[in-house]
Amino acid sequence: MGVHAPLCLGLPDGQIAERDERLADLVTEILATKPPGTWCAATWRGDGHPDHEAVGRAAAVAAERTGAVLLEYPVWMWHWARPDDGAVPWHRASAAPLTRFAVERKNVAAQAFRSQLVPPAPGVDPVLPPYVLSRLMAVGEVVFR
Questions:
Q1: What is the model's pTM?
Q2: Is the Cα dihedral 36, 109, 99, 1 positive or negative?
Q3: Alpha-carbon gap, residue 50 to 16, rounded angstroms
Q4: How far apart are CA 41 and CA 94, in angstroms?
Q5: What ranges in 67-126 are assigned the alpha helix state H?
Q6: 3-state DSSP call for residue 124?
């Protein structure tokens, strides 16, 4: 994808909300080594998934502490929100269309989450049905500032 390898902070999947103070401290330590105005991209605090929301809260705290620019991106919101949904801060949204190359890279990245795309057992639907993946590729990139 042309970015640095992910940094694993050792926090357990599904239990981030129980550790958001620790995560905020870890992200603060990372951002403190970067120049002011560095972007910090995190899942949106209102996404509807407990881990995503905890990551967003921790990133917001870390950005406030360090002067980083927080960009929050929705993941599960696309599954439940409506265009005029009052729970979504549309006034803070910015969108960017994707180039063909970016769509290809995004598709490669999405395929890395096999647990979300492959049925967990015969006769059971995957967590993300195919139409969700096609929506993910169609909307470009949306962030909340």
A1: 0.83
A2: positive
A3: 8
A4: 13
A5: 77-80, 100-111, 114-117
A6: coil
